[in-house]
Amino acid sequence: MAKSESITLVKEEVLTLGRLVETTVYEVTRLLKGDRKADLDLVEKQEEEINKLCLEIEESCVDLLVERESSFGAREIRALVSIPLIAAKLERLADHANRVARFASWAMEDEIETPEELAAMAASVYHMVQELLLCFLTDSPSKAKEILASDNQVDYLHDVLSKKLLSDLGQQESARAQMRAQFLFCARFLERMGDCCTSIAKRVYFLSTGERISKCR
């Protein structure tokens, strides 16, 4: 099999992984919006599949790099080095999403109203994941920059919600204080999901151009 074909196959595996993560984040968004048709079981089922596929991608890249008869160019080497890191970030993103999904499902079962900022953060991250898949598929440096800039919305919502929840935390009764703490954890996980998206966007930019890029503000 030609070198370019081998790398294309690995990139297709990353897209498959990315689509699984996209579905996971979509279900998290639905759960945070209180949609009772959202599927927590699907999120948990996909977690194992995502972990397995991430390892397979890493092994495929290592196998290609250690083939003595292969002489890859700079761009191909960047791809083989970057792809396992991208897969690992997607896997980490899904881990965070799984934690948020479990809390959101529990809150919905107990009829606990979640802050609207959490659903808005999840929706923003979901859009970032969609754009990431397109960015990776098209190898687009400009799209990578757009994704970096869009994380500002996630950070903004995180700051707004954190200030709101912490403003009078010490004056709340124990049960409400604990609930607010759970909301804060969820917000932090969603903020980290946005960070994972920016890390992947930076890596795609490097894969495409060979240059490093800092987060856009």
SSE layout and pairings?
Blueprint: H1 3-32, H2 40-66, H3 74-109, H4 116-138, H5 141-166, H6 174-209
Helix pairs in contact: 1-2, 1-3, 1-4, 2-3, 3-6, 4-5, 4-6, 5-6
Task: Summarize this structure briefly.
The protein is an all-alpha fold and 217 residues long. The chain has helices spanning 3-32, 40-66, 74-109, 116-138, 141-166, 174-209.
In words, what does this structure look like?
The chain is mostly helical and 217 residues long. It has a single domain (3-209), classed as Methane Monooxygenase Hydroxylase, Chain G, domain 1. The chain is 82% helix and 0% strand. It has six helices and no strands. The chain has helices at 3-32, 40-66, 74-109, 116-138, 141-166, 174-209. Helix 2 (40-66) packs antiparallel against helix 3. The longest helix has 36 residues, at 74-109. The protein is elongated, with a radius of gyration of 19 Å. The N and C termini lie far apart (43 Å). The model has no long low-confidence stretch (mean pLDDT 91).
